[in-house]
Design the sequence.
């Protein structure tokens, strides 16, 4: 008998919790949908973007993680990916509809963070999405 999709998701989520041990318990789809957050206010997608793990990012997006959720300091997943200089993570987020215009609590966009850190390829990717 084939394993149900939800059971596969739960197993994958459990593995992500182990991987991002500072995150709260996201053991099922309902917790992801309800927007569970860690002590810093970040969701599991934020953690995956800090790590730059595109497989984890795509999995979380496939189960409807909030791509534009603001977490710690008003950072979205795209803020974290741009700040870390992770081109593949930024590309995955933009392809899935991440809003490149959102500003964090300091009034900085993802573009601003990439500019401060001189992430040239990310600047090019984000510039095509923004008007300055």
Sequence:
């Amino acid at each position: 008998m084939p394993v149900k999709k939800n059971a596969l998701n739960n197993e994958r989520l459990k593995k992500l919790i182990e991987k991002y041990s500072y995150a709260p318990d996201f053991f099922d789809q309902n917790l992801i949908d309800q927007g569970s957050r860690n002590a810093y206010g970040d969701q599991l997608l934020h953690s995956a973007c800090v790590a730059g793990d595109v497989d984890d990012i795509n999995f979380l997006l496939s189960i409807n993680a909030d791509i534009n959720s603001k977490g710690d300091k008003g950072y979205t997943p795209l803020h974290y990916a741009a700040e870390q200089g992770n081109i593949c993570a930024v590309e995955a987020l933009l392809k899935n509809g991440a809003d490149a215009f959102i500003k964090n609590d300091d009034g900085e966009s993802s573009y601003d963070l990439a500019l401060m850190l001189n992430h040239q390829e990310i600047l090019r990717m984000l510039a095509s999405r923004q008007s300055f």
